[in-house]
Write a structure and sequence with these properties.
This protein has 5 helices and no strands. With about 110 residues, it is mostly helical. The longest helix has 24 residues. It is elongated and about 60 Å long.
């Protein structure tokens, strides 16, 4: 079984949670625009989180302490859970080099 461009596009749109409007069903260009807009939206959210991660974690730690001190144990536990999630965020994956790039690097090293 082969993996077609249509399969790829469908997988990307599904992964991004995009429901393609009927008028774009036969328009790969419009589908790509939808996907790119969603990717840009997600990247902007990620940037805000990553650029402010230390501050966000510090604020949540203070919230956790205040909640705990005031007997709001469930809220304190929720804050702690979010802190753990933020601290466990994976780094961005490095781009995968193709064989030509590796050959070029090897040629440069010689």
């Amino acid at each position: 079984m082969t993996y077609s461009c249509t399969d790829f596009t469908d997988d990307i749109l599904d992964a991004l949670g995009i429901q393609v409007p009927q008028q774009f069903n036969d328009s790969p260009s419009d589908q790509a625009d939808l996907a790119l807009a969603e990717i840009e939206r997600l990247q902007s959210i990620e940037k805000v989180i990553r650029d402010n991660l230390t501050t966000v974690i510090a604020a949540l730690q203070q919230t956790e302490l205040v909640d705990h001190d005031n007997g709001r144990i469930a809220d304190a536990e929720d804050a702690r859970a979010v802190i753990k999630l933020l601290q466990a965020l994976p780094e961005k994956a490095a781009p995968i080099a193709d064989e030509e790039d590796e050959e070029d690097e090897n040629d440069d090293a010689e």
